[in-house]
Amino acid sequence: xxxxxxxxxxxxxxxxxxxxxxxxxxxLPVLAxxxxxxxxxxxVITASDLETTIRETCPAVVYSPGKxxxxxxxxxxxxxxxxxxxxxxxxxxxxxxxxxxxxxRTTFLGLxxxxxxxxxxxxxxxxxxxxxxxxxxxxxxxxxxxxxxxxRYNLSGVYMVLEEVEDKKSIRFVTSDSKRLNISTVLDNAGxxxxxxxxxxxxxxxxxxxxxxxEVEFIEIAVSFSCVVAKTxxxxxxxxxxxxxxxxxxxxxxxxxxxxxxxDRKRFLETLKRVALISDDQARVGKFEFSxxxxxxxxxxxxxxxxxxxxxxxxxxxxxxxxxxxFFFIESLSVLASDLxxxxxxxxxxxxxxxxTEDPGYFGIIMASKL
Length: 371
Fold this sequence. Notes:
The chain is an alpha+beta fold. Helices cover 16% and strands 43% of the residues. It has a 20-stranded antiparallel β-sheet that branches. Strands 20-19-18-21 form a four-stranded antiparallel β-sheet.
């Protein structure tokens, strides 16, 4: 029967990483539980919602190996709240787990481990090591434009594909909600990465992947016909691929544009945030007026009022007026690093291409909105 002593900080880190995967609203009760396993010299915490599974490992003094389940939310809350350097866990009768820290003691009621989802065998998968920071930055630049669940299913995830970028194969992420499209690239030579076709990653899986990549320098990734697996020294994350084909995003990239505006990113972002202060769900489209050397943004909300602000830009083309959802620009500009961004376009009724020289491998496409 399970009996271990584990460092509190190590266990807090493990449950913090795993708790967001556990499913709180499911017809299968065990998905709201952690699987807790004591193995040799470590404690393993596993959470799953069937589509996404994570295993977090921390060192432990194992007096007796074993495994059982505990309610994820409550176990997470208690582990974070206790005051002590280490935590003692001991399995009791009838699927119970006792947690003791100093004078504090609590008992959790578990479910049968036989009902907990089984993990995919990853022993035959080929892993490719990627810089974790590059992966995080690439995810940040696309995750916000994944389509909602009520929209097209094949747009409700992140498209991952190998592309030739700067004369080497790199991993490219693409997302779209039909009104905008964002592309980012992990600019690392991925020539030996095993990905013979583009795949659609679930949004939740990608969000968990970003978390796993938070505190490590490198992360290993493998892709099979049905799932993606990512691992570090202490974490193993696996999540299923979405079915269906992602639309040909290359066909919507603007070509033959003849106008370009270069804008200070921070000033552009601050202006948009101020203009958006009177917006609501019904009033999100602002009027963008381009003139030589200046961009004026105006937003009207019939129930509140109107805001307007101008800022200098590098533009010497003809005057042009168009409309955009201001939050589309706010979200894109917020995750870029460049001091200067570029908008290229042809006329007021088509999509605008957003690029940034200090964010290599990224560009966004934002469709004009009716005023």
